[in-house]
Amino acid sequence: MPPYTATSLKAELNARGWRLTPQREKILHVFQNLPRGNHLSAEELYSLLEQREEGISLSTIYRSVKLMSRMGILRELELAEGHKHYELNQPYPHHHHHLVCIQCNKTIEFKNDSILKQSLKQCEKEGFQLIDCQLTVMTICPEALRMGWPSTLPSNWSCTRAISEGKTLKSLVAEDEDKE
Amino acid sequence: MPPYTATSLKAELNARGWRLTPQREKILHVFQNLPRGNHLSAEELYSLLEQREEGISLSTIYRSVKLMSRMGILRELELAEGHKHYELNQPYPHHHHHLVCIQCNKTIEFKNDSILKQSLKQCEKEGFQLIDCQLTVMTICPEALRMGWPSTLPSNWSCTRAISEGKTLKSLVAEDEDKE
DNA sequence: CTCGTTGCAAAGCGTTTGCATGGCA
DNA sequence: TGCCATGCAAACGCTTTGCAACGAG
Q: Which residues bind Fe cation (chains A, B) (predicted)?
């Protein structure tokens, strides 16, 4: 799947009885020029376009990102921030996943082909068609750990389950095989 | 790691200056008796408890599932349904992931150890501490494909999988009560 | 010309919060 | 007894929707 251009976007929209509007073109353009590792919320996209004096109403923003997500052009991210973020849905080999600090929301992008392979395998097994797969790794970042997590929470808080889960798994990583 | 009991829940709560209340105990109980592969939204949990005449206010539900998620007892799922779902956070080897139809929300649970391994590997590389990792595979189910996805869908169409999924809540209550 | 699309404002919906009351440690 | 937790209702923030005007095909 090649990256979208205004022309191919128009073609795909028209094929489904939808239309290419200046608004949709501008939105696509923003995402195409977004530096790698960035993703925008509807609100952020809105104010970004506002700053460029290409204002688009918030409702159109919402309608467009939803449509473009359903078309497979954008990717809807559910990070731990209480609202959705969007980015270009880049096919393999640009496909990637996210590691998020649940304390400060810091996000790191990472690639891992085997995850996509595993997802595909699962889809084929069930007879479903893969649209996207997202691995979200919920973590505590080093800064948050240094800042005192988990003591930023009441007294001697700790997520004992997660900790012992981590310990159990170290042995698994050692034997790491990455076989599909 | 052993599953939580009312006693161990109390111990962990008290250790952090929190308290075991009948409400929290009932909520834990519901999740412990939930058939595998099921997860509840706050609203569903609320009406489930209401049907048993053990009513708990919605705000307490929200406060409790949030607290228990942060303690690592529950797992907060971001499926493609516009609201969060919760399930017991079962450590390896019961850890699992989800395949979701973005049209009808039909969800299939699947296990895959390599995903957990890859996540842990990534965490160690970045120096982050793993709390949880969730692979969500967004798909179109065979039925939605047959209906002509994506161009010919009526705006409010949902395939029969979604309908039968919706019906399960009642049967869950029945099953759960049998186990008491 | 038609019918999808936009902008605006209002509504919707899941979730959170302030506050007085209740109840666990 | 002190203080966390609950229930209620109101507030909140993100997102969706109704409607009249607009404009792409």
A: 95
Q: Do B150 and A15 touch (CB under 8 A)?
A: no
In which band, very low, low, confident or very high, does the pLDDT at B161 lie, cut at 50, 70 and 90?
A: very low
Element (H, E) at B79: none
List, for residues B133-154, the tens digit of each pLDDT value: 999 998 888 887 776 665 544 4
Query: Which residue is nearest to the C1' sugar atom of C16, using CA?
Result: B59
Average pLDDT per consecutive 10 residues, chain A (180 residues; last block may be shorter): 76 88 96 90 94 89 93 85 87 84 80 91 92 87 68 38 35 35
Site from B116, B132, B157 to mutate, A interface, most A CB atoms within 10 angstroms: B132
| pLDDT, tens only, B84-117 | 999 998 877 788 999 988 777 788 999 998 999 9
Judgement on whether residues B86 and B121 belong to the same structural domain of the protein: no
Q: What is the CATH number of the domain that holds B135?
A: 3.30.1490.190
3-state SS string for B123-138: HHHHCCEEEEEEEEEE
User: How far apart (Å, rounded) are the C-alpha atoms in residues B139 and B87?
Assistant: 21
pLDDT, tens only, A50-90 = 888 778 999 999 999 999 988 888 989 988 777 899 999 88
Last residue of a domain, one of A49, A71, A93: A93
Detail the residues of A annotated as belonging to a binding site for Fe cation: 95
- Mean pLDDT rounded to a whole number for chain A: 78
- Of A93, A114, A149, the residue that ends a domain is A93
- Cα-based distances in Å from B5 to B8, B28, B29, B33: 5, 8, 8, 12
Asked if B80 and B37 sit in the same domain, the reply is: yes
Beta carbons of B151 and A16 less than 8 Å apart:
yes
Q: Say yes or no for a CB contact (<8 Å) between B130 and A153.
A: no
For chain A, say whether B11 makes contact (Cβ under 8 Å): no
Name the pTM for this structure: 0.80
